[in-house]
Amino acid sequence: MYDDVLFEQRLNEFKPEPLITPIETNAEVLEIPMVKEDSNNIDLAKANYLNVLDNEEIKKASEDLIREYGVGTCGPRAFYGTTDIHLELEECLAKFLHMEESIVYSYGFVAISSSIAAYCKKSDIIFVDEHANFPIHQGLIAAKSKVVKFAHNDPKDLKRKLLQVAENEKRKSRKFLIIEGISWATGKLCPLPDFIEVAEEFKMRVFLEESYSFGVFGATGRGLTEYFSIDPTRIDMIFGTLEGAIGSIGGFCAGSNLTIEHQRLSGSGYIFSASLPTYLVKVVLKSLELIGDKPKQLAELAKTFHQFLEECKFHVESHPEAPFKLITATPKSDEIKIYQHCKENGVHFIHNDNGLMINLNINLLQEKDKLDRIYRVLKGASELIN
């Protein structure tokens, strides 16, 4: 009791000098505007496909973990950064994906780029989709391999490029194929069975990036291997972020025991980064536990929403079952008209170089009034350009 009082007293008396001298400035403080969901505003910019961000069970489980483990390990996985919760998640992910083993990174971006760089070397040839996402491109830069791009989601063009390389190849090189389950740039679904057929014909290693198909596609959310009824062991690596459907932070990679063990020794993002905070690990575990039939519900909402957009004569790039809808318009000024009209009427989503991106949430199935309002506003926006 005395020690506690003394500790509190010394803590209150501790007034350290600042490490640096604060710089006085009259510059205006800029704030990033946030959309606060209320009766006037609907947030379709946030990626919360399975509505796990506000789940009370997940919040309580995370709070309990913080009280027991703290907010972070303050060290890489190999240096005081691994807890039993990390190992539990890796075992759970491997079992969920029907792979031998998995590895968890503290940041989704480096999970993708580090996984590529850990295996692909300067003497290798990597075949990659022309619309591959930024983390994949960073992995290619780190790997320093020869890169060959093929037309978006086109297995036939991949085969043509492979034959061209074979004709000009003086010595045999290892070949890798990197594809995205759902393209972040276009929202289109990868024709995985056709790509695997080509890859197996040419004896290529296949890396599948599943940031926007993991937790969404397939009856239980296992991704494209479940959606297409493909044996996951035909894929060398499945990797992606945990920041889409699962509602946490971090990334994962799953594959054979040998594949994952190699990353523990050479995955830069794994070796040099502090491990994923334990309470965020628990978010993933709890989300997977509660996933149930949510992927099926989301697929139905996505198809209904897609059909509505097409009836409004929007040009929808994304796949009918994609968890986000990507709308493009010509001229580009029409995209601004749509965006501004919806914003003024309290429906908020993303406008970027790819087009207008609307993130879905299965909770809209229960909130009919909110969904009807979204439909009314989008219908009004379509009438401005058609």
Automatic annotation (TrEMBL):
GO cellular component: endoplasmic reticulum; membrane
GO terms for MF: pyridoxal phosphate binding; serine C-palmitoyltransferase activity
Enzyme class: transferase
GO biological process, one term: ceramide biosynthetic process
Pathway linked to the protein: Lipid metabolism; sphingolipid metabolism; Sphingolipid metabolism
Domain Aminotransferase class I/classII large intervals: 42-351
One Pfam assignment: Aminotran_1_2
Domain of life of the native organism: Eukaryota
E.C. no: 2.3.1.50
Keywords on record: Acyltransferase, Lipid metabolism, Pyridoxal phosphate, Sphingolipid metabolism, Transferase
Family: Belongs to the class-II pyridoxal-phosphate-dependent aminotransferase family.
Protein name: Serine palmitoyltransferase 1
